[in-house]
Design goal:
Blueprint lengths: L4 H15 L26 H18 L2 E5 L11 H18 L5 E4 L11 E4 H7 L5 E8 H14 L3 E3 L1 E6 L2 E7 L2 E2 L5 E7 H4 L13 E8 H14 L12 E3 L2
Parallel strand pairs: 2-9, 6-11
Antiparallel strand pairs: 1-3, 2-5, 4-9, 4-10, 6-7, 7-8
Helix pairs in contact: 3-7
Amino acid sequence: MKVNFCTLFVLFNILFYSCSPKTWQVVEATSVKIPIDSTTEKFADKEYEAALQPVKERIDAEMAVVIGYSAENMRSFAPESPLSNFCADVFRRAASDFLHQEVDVSVVNLGGLRTEIPAGNITIRNIYELMPFENELVILWVRGDKLIQLFQFFASVGGEGVSGISMKIKNGKATQILVGTHPIDPEKIYTVATSDYLAEGNDQMTALSEYEKISGTGLKLRNVLIDFIRNETLKGHVIQSKIDGRISMEN
């Protein structure tokens, strides 16, 4: 039997393309929110729950440990707040201790403070809820002109958490920027304590990622807060913070 070339060519293409891997494309996606509460309890695997119960009890006991006492309910808000001031001050102090010299500035993103510190007893759980992420305290060496860019961004969004600086916001612009008690110098290199997350330029803080040098501390932000509160409690101090005008709105 004779088979012409055209027939062979058609058969070859049919076999080739029928064996080729298919490429799939998503044309529609939907999602359903499933609340994890008492209504889902009936679906729980009871044997699995029983196996995890000792672990849950141990973790609950650890989380319930009281480490200090807050004189007030500390929340975060712009342009500055008791909670953001407290965290930024603690991080700058910890970075200064690590570096064995005064760190100039500390920066905290308000979005990273996930809850508040309630008035009264402070537990380990409170701090884990405040900072549920595994972020590390890092120290950056940043030129003054980059910090000016950063503070101009802060002014455009109404403020962020800072320590070691003061500034005013007028018509969405940062004015009268001081580091310590001195006007910020665009040519000077400043040390900045912040999180490894912000050091990557996240939360639109791209100026921080343009550092001259970086040093990790190996200290988790959450642990820095826990250690500070414990140490203050051993000294007989309550935990408190205040709004002191480090960022203020100018008419």
